[in-house]
Amino acid sequence: MARTTLTRTVLAAVSVVSLFALGACASDAGGEPAAGGETSGGADDGVITLGFSQVGAESGWRAANTKSIQDTLTVDNGFELKFSDAQQKQENQIQAIRSYITQGVDVIAFSPVVETGWDAVLQEAKSAGIPVILTDRAVDSSDETLYESFIGSDFVKEGEMAGEWVVEQYDGEGYQAVELQGTTGAAPAIDRKEGFESAIEGSDVEIIDSQTGNFTRAEGKTVMEGFLNKHDDIDLVFAHNDDMGLGAIEAIEAAGMTPGEDIKIVTIDAVKDGMQALVDGKINYIVECNPLLGPDLAEIAQKVVAGEEVEKRIVVKDEAFDQAAAEEALPTREY
Ligand code: AHR
Question: Is the CB of 115 under 6 A from ligand 1?
Answer without folding.
Answer: no
